[in-house]
Amino acid sequence: MTEAVLLQEVDEHGVMTLTLNHEPTRNALTGTGLTEALLGAFARIEHDRGIKVLILTARGKVFSSGGKIDEMARQIQPEVSSAALRQEYRHGIQRLPLALYQLEVPTIAAVNGMAIGAGCDLACMCDIRLASETASFAESFVKVGIIPGDGGAWFLPRIVGMARAVEMSMTGEPIDAQTALQWGLVSRVVPDDQLLPTALEVAHKMTRNSPDIIRMTKRLLREGQNSSLSNLLELSAAYQAIAHKTPEHAVIVQDFMDRKAQKKT
Length: 265
Fold this sequence. Notes:
With 265 residues, the chain is an alpha/beta fold. It has 2 domains: 6-207, Alpha-Beta Complex (2-enoyl-CoA Hydratase, Chain A, domain 1); 211-264. Helices cover 49% and strands 15% of the residues. The chain has a 6-stranded mixed sheet with strand order 1-2-3-5-7-10, with helices on both faces. Helix 5 packs across helix 6 (152-160) and helix 6 (152-160) packs across helix 7.
């Protein structure tokens, strides 16, 4: 039986781990079924409130090689028109950034090796990136004569700033894990064998909090990237009104008041 290109596991805390599993192509996102499998997993997360955090990682020494060269060879054939290619992108890999960005649960990329081209962008689509010591990142589309077609030009400058995004995008050269840490592309660099345990540790810290509050907080952080301050404050007021009425908040406040009363006696 053929092994799945995407491995899925949900632990008792509600953390889903998705593992890219197509080592022959170094986990290429196109021409392997990985994009479709990821989209299916994201749809499951959207409908399953028991899933509270998503970790995205990969098997092998490469996180993702991005686009499959065999697919590029097909795309340059005369019978494949530019109009057809535009639709392929819109209805194919471009669904990934939209679906992943719009997920309400926090997302953690545990980058275990090279993240190349669309693989680098896939990591950037997540809320948090953790890297193993052997990880590297390359916005390398220019190296194969194409542009970032999957949203990298939107994500990368927001993470590392425009100057560094331009350097990565225009040279196509990789940066190592420590440089990625210095540039803010990743928040932690850990030994290879500690990557997934660290990602799970971070995820479990999140699951201890109210899942509804986590979802609303993520939405506010996302909206804050593009919204005016006044509009964000309006949304914050609405969400805060909801938050004050949640059972979890009531328990926390009552516990505080009880402990305060005990200190007075």
